[in-house]
Specification:
It is a single chain. By secondary structure, the chain is mostly helical. The chain has one domain. Helix 3 runs antiparallel to helix 10, helix 3 crosses helix 13 and helix 6 runs parallel beside helix 9. The longest helix has 36 residues. It starts with a helix and ends with a helix. The model has no long low-confidence stretch (mean pLDDT 80).
Length: 501
């Protein structure tokens, strides 16, 4: 029971750490878009996408280090921990240097002068983005220590402060007409300060592990063997998530990326909330798997899945119901006219992604990566094919449909995993039951929204207030109908009392 409370408590911190960025983005994003303009914001998004893609250069090592660090800490093997961390430091430094060089070299390739022909500062952006990737890569070990030891309370506190400073600095620079290159340089300074803080904190929670470079062949080989399989999965996942944003400027121009990315960023909050809650499942699954506690592992999966399903459904339905109003009053009527359909499609897409979050975390924790990787590659390949077909024909709406349709193989992922890895019975009945409950509540909430609540919205504050009430209404109705399991309600109550005591 204690581990259950700890899991939910960590999930609360992880959720709070995810919720704050949403709140601050609600304030700063429209001001940043207005200050930059549609085209420049598209360029800014493009470079952030490039940095995300460069994260693939670690070949899955970060996931491997997180897994083995959790296992070694659970066994109390300090010698293995020390060897693992020194090796990880060396790897992440090398990854950062290579990624930095790749990004900087991009400034001198022909495509750069073509896409950014009217932007004289673009080479500085490449250089600053490369430096930012280098700094972020070096800090990977410290963030992994905090998360692997399940100290999500610390991650929440540091992340909240850091993000707030970052977003406010970007806003100040935009309002004072500084270039995108300057924005990235300032982010480099903030990221460097964050390294110092993370290093100090990680030493406090894991003593006698100072930052040192080293190389342990056993740990390196072990991490790369695990990581290479993870790399294929990560590559497929990142391609599935960001490929549309990476190639869209080439097909439709930088401005189209703004019309696509803003509703996409909103819709991504659905699986983001799921991932913030299921982030604690990876180290928990590794720990339970290592100790052979199979039944507790099954219970953790089933309970986390049904709770995340309800929460993701509540957010998705609210997003769909108020998509046009949110884009209109948050950004502009012009963006709402061009991007509302995209937002609705991507909201449905990200609901599916939200459900795969717990599944992926468990598969990673169990080390069952082959099947996950095959399915991820299949979805990424399908997405690539559909993007090439649908984007030229239907523009940003085509890109959104390509993303949604590419998730069809996820259905088989659930079936195979639950039958062969978790050995769960009667799942067909379980899925019919839980989705019937959510469909009933969704139908009621959508009717209330379209024919009642939507007419109460006349500005952004009302979108936020009324939309929030609709989301709460979803959860209340689910509870009033008696759809929540009694043990889930009891565990949440006890954990909340402990958390706020």
């Amino acid at each position: 029971m204690e581990s259950t409370h700890r899991t939910i408590k960590n999930s609360i911190y992880s959720f709070l750490g995810y919720g704050w960025p949403i709140l601050i983005s609600l304030v700063v994003t429209p001001l940043i878009v207005s200050g930059m303009g549609i085209k420049d914001y598209g360029i800014y998004t493009f470079f952030n996408t490039v940095i995300s893609f460069m994260g693939l250069l670690d070949f899955g090592i970060s996931t491997a280090v997180g897994k083995y660090l959790a296992e070694y800490h659970g066994r109390g093997d300090t010698e293995r921990i020390r060897s693992l961390l020194k090796t990880a430091n060396s790897i992440f430094l090398g990854v950062g240097i290579i990624g930095c060089l790749v990004i900087v070299i991009g400034a001198f390739l022909p495509f750069a002068s073509t896409i950014f022909a009217n932007y004289t500062d673009y080479k500085l952006i490449f250089i600053a983005a490369g430096i930012l990737f280098l700094i972020s890569s070096i800090s990977s070990t410290y963030t992994l220590i905090i998360n692997s030891l399940q100290r999500f309370d610390i991650s929440f506190k540091i992340g909240t402060v850091g993000l707030t400073i970052q977003q406010l600095s970007i806003l100040w620079l935009v309002l004072n007409k500084h270039s995108i290159g300057t924005i990235f340089l300032v982010q480099c300074v903030i990221a460097f300060i964050a390294i110092i803080i993370f290093q100090f904190v990680s030493r406090r929670i894991l003593p006698n592990n100072p930052y040192r470079l080293g190389w342990d062949k056993v740990e390196a080989k072990k991490s790369y063997i695990f990581g290479m399989v993870t790399f294929a999965n990560n590559m497929a996942t990142v391609s599935l998530t960001y490929l549309d944003r990476l190639i869209m400027p080439f097909f439709l121009g930088p401005s189209s990326l703004t019309y696509y990315s803003i509703p996409g960023n909103i819709a991504m909050k659905v699986p983001g909330i799921s991932n913030s809650l299921s982030a604690v499942l990876f180290p928990m699954a590794s720990s339970l798997s290592g100790s052979g506690e199979t039944e507790r592992l099954k219970t953790l999966y089933v309970r986390s899945f049904r709770l995340i399903t309800v929460l993701a459904a509540a957010v998705t339905v609210t997003t769909i119901a108020f998509s046009r109003q949110l884009l209109t009053y948050w950004i502009s009527p012009d963006l709402a006219a061009k991007a509302t359909t995209v937002m609705i499609i991507l909201a449905a897409t990200n609901f599916v992604l939200a459900l795969t979050g717990p599944l992926s975390s468990f598969l990673l924790g169990l080390g069952k990566l082959k099947f996950l990787t095959i399915l991820s590659i299949a979805m990424a390949a399908l997405n690539t094919i559909l993007l090439v077909i649908l984007m030229p024909l239907f523009g940003i709406n085509g890109a959104a449909w390509a993303y949604l349709l590419s998730l069809i193989p996820a259905i088989y992922m659930f079936y195979f995993t639950e039958k062969h890895y978790l050995k769960l019975d009667q799942r067909a009945h379980y899925y019919r039951n839980i989705f019937a409950k959510n469909l009933l509540v969704s139908a009621i909430v959508l009717v209330v929204s379209y024919f009642g609540a939507a007419h109460l919205v006349h500005n952004f504050a009302e979108v936020f207030i009324v939309g929030g009430c609709i989301g709460i209404l979803y959860l209340v109705l689910y509870w009033l109908f008696g759809f929540f399991e009694p043990e889930d309600v009891e565990s949440i109550k006890k954990t909340l009392l402990r958390f706020f005591h």
